[in-house]
Amino acid sequence: MRKRILFFSCFFGSGTIAVACTVCERRQPELLRGISHGAGPESRWDLWIVAAVAAIVALSLFFSVKWILRPGETSADHIKRSIFK
């Protein structure tokens, strides 16, 4: 238990913030300036691809949680009835 507390306090409570260097900061678009490090998006397609992937992940998360909490199976001979007795 002590190791877990030490681990989480080192990584989540350290208070240090990683920032981009000045060269990379100039190359980033305004939205990402000061946050990310490295080359920025090459074209508008990069942003559309990231937005599409984020939407797919959000939908997957929503439906996963929805179907875990309320699966909707009501039949008496469903396999979950034999497992969760």
Question: How would you characterize the overall build of this protein?
Answer:
With 85 residues, this protein is mainly alpha-helical. The relative contact order is 0.06. The model has no long low-confidence stretch (mean pLDDT 76). It is elongated and about 65 Å long. It contains four helices and no strands.
- Describe the largest sheet: none
Structural class: mainly alpha
Specify the helix fraction band.
55-70%
From the spread of the alpha carbons, the general shape counts as elongated
> What is the number of independent domains?
2
What pattern of helices and strands is seen along the backbone?
A: HHHH
| Strand-residue proportion | under 5%
Low-pLDDT segments, ≥5 res? none
Count of helical regions: 4
* CA(first)-CA(last) distance: 34 Å
Q: Count all strands and give the number.
A: 0
Nearest-integer average pLDDT: 76
Radius of gyration: 22 Å
In short:
The chain is mainly alpha-helical and 85 residues long. Helices cover 56% and strands 0% of the residues. The two termini are 34 Å apart.
